[in-house]
Amino acid sequence: MIVTCSGGTYFDRDYYVDVHLALALACWRRHGLESAAAFFPRDVDAPDVVSVGIYRFRDEAAMHAALASAETEAVMSDVPHFTDATVSRSVSIPL
User: Which of 10, 18, 28, 36 could be joined to 66 by an S-S link, Cβ 3.0–4.6 Å?
Assistant: First the structure.
């Protein structure tokens, strides 16, 4: 799953990497989340993109189970602690 943050007036990279990704792992690991990482692009074609999170699940079913879990509320309610950017999610399935 790819989570992109765009725009906004603030983004705390340290909090996102050190706290939010750890929270996602703690909440979703039992559902099949295998890793979570972030990168911060400098792309002239998409200058408003401030971060890209890569959440790697065991498989697509695990991702859907995690997103449907009660723990997802904790992950989503943590977002305002590091940004007011628009958050969008997409799914990438390996070939």
Answer: 28
Contact present, 50 and 38 (Cβ < 8 Å): no
Closest CA to 75 of 58, 59, 94, 89: 89
In a domain, 11, yes or no: yes
Are residues 11 and 83 in contact, defined by beta-carbon separation less than 8 angstroms? yes
The length of the chain is 95
75 closest CA partner among 14, 13, 33: 33
Domain hosting residue 29, numbered range: 2-90
Distance CA(68)–CA(71), nearest Å, equals 8
Total domains in the chain come to 1
* Cα 19 to Cα 29: distance, rounded to the nearest angstrom: 15
Q: What is the pLDDT of residues 15-62, one digit of tens each?
A: 999 999 999 999 999 999 999 999 998 876 777 889 999 999 999 999
Q: Is residue 67 part of a domain?
A: yes
